[in-house]
Structures are given as C-alpha cells and as structure tokens.
Amino acid sequence: MKLDDMMDEWEKDSQMDQSELGLESLRIPTLHHKYFKIFSQEGLLLKKLESDYKVLLKLKTMYYMGTLSEEELEEQAWEPQPLKILKQDLPLFIEGDDDIRLLQNKIDIQKQKLSFLESAIKTIINRGFLIKNAIDWERFKVGA
Which of 6, 23, 133, 139 is deepest in the core (most CB within 10 A)? Predict the structure, then answer.
C-alpha cells in the first residue's frame, strides 16, 4: 500500500461524528484491527526488503571487488567490473550504486510507512480518552 493511500484512508477514518460519540467508541476495535493488520503486513515487507538489501550488498561487494563469478554476473545481467577498486574505496562505489540506492530508498519509504502507522495506532488507542473528554465537555456545557 502506498503512503499517500494510507494517509488518505486515515484522513477518512480519523474523523469522529460528534453527535454519535457512543458509536465512535464502538469503532475503536475495528479501526485498531484495520491499522494493526496493515502495520503487520508493512512490517513484514520491511523485513523482506532489509533481507534483500543484505543479499544485494554482498553481491555488489563481490562485484566491485571483482570476485563475482561469470555465472553470477550473467544471472544478475551485470557486465564484468572493469575497474580495479581498492578495498578502502569500496564503500564509495557501493553507496553510489544505483541498485543499492534504489533498494535503500524503498527501505526508507517502508520505515516512513511504519512510523505513520504507529502514530495512527497510538491515536486509535487514545481515541477512547478523546471521546470521554468530548462527552465530559458536553456535560459541562449543559451544566450536568
């Protein structure tokens, strides 16, 4: 799920009908389930991306060191590394590699999604307190 889609969905789900606070309190478990399910799925996707990153990092390290076999080069559809790269310069080449940067960007986006979902779940958890405060305020306004 895209971050923008999550934000749009949360914008709708976070709205409370002030005239139906009792029904809004009954929606709390449903909302919690919905967003925790998404959080779990996105968390698993992050784990997969991080695992893929480790594999890619190993392959790219071997590639830039010139130790990747012909079969592995063909499997990855990479040309043989023409440069002789010193071990001390290896991080520079790996950090600048397009494949590495693309996967790192995906990981960063995934972490941002999880941060957003954590915030939404915390808000859902606190929703009961917000509803209680709104009810108390209404009672105060009518003098009860």
Answer: 6
